[in-house]
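User: Predict the structure for this protein chain, please.
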Amino acid sequence: MNRRRFLALSAAALATPAEAETRWQGRAFGADCALSLRGPIHAAAAALASLPTLIEAIEADFSLHRPSALTDLNATGRLAAPSLAFNSVLDLTDAIHRLTDGAFDPTVQPLWQAAAEGRANTSPIGWRHVQRVIGITLRPGMALTFNGIAQGFGADAVKAHLAAHGFDHALIDMGETAALGGPFRLGLQDPVHGHLATRTLTGTAIATSSPMATLVNGQPHILHPMGLPPLWSTVSVEARTAALADALSTALVFLTADRIAALRHPGLIRVTLVGFDGNLQTV
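Assistant: Here is the predicted structure, written as structure tokens:
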């Protein structure tokens, strides 16, 4: 986050009436993030003042853009004492890996690296190879990426942080979107076909994945562990938490509509699928 920008926003907030909408912008996981919240200005200033520490803790666990617990694990193959947050993400990863027939698999990081470098991958792939006995152990050559879940996890953490400061109306965008209260109306966009629908969040979350929106040497940036191609131009998932929505939107680009319709998870609300022809369906 740009500290100077944060101070400017805080000063602007303190100059507004006692109760107003406050907006914040910063960076997390190498991308822009933002939030808007409504409530007493003195409470907003306190919540925003401690927000950089929260984001720093999340990045210290999961970032691939700077030194972190994850980069240490990838470099050494071993993380002896993962944090509570790290273990929470691992637990959810286990659940979503099983739910999606293995389509959600953080061990695809070497596939992404190989694609970026224009070479074949020679590292072992597969979540089953990750050992969680007194810490975390990877096979030689393995590496993980939590880019398909960490942003949602971060949005949930910021939402909980704001709720703990007494807020009941906020919209958090950390690449995936979480709502505290609402309603909030958001547009559903496809990179080729543009605006296709509007979704309303009230205390829930939404995450959207478009595998062809960013290409890595001509390949989609979302990779299946077995090298399967994406089946959808865009998948948008509404769920009770942003972490669940994030992980599912990443994985469901590889599942058929029938298989997606058969998914059962207490936190899943709705899935919107956009075909490569622009056809939209909701399951």
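Confidence is low (pLDDT under 50) at residues 1-18.
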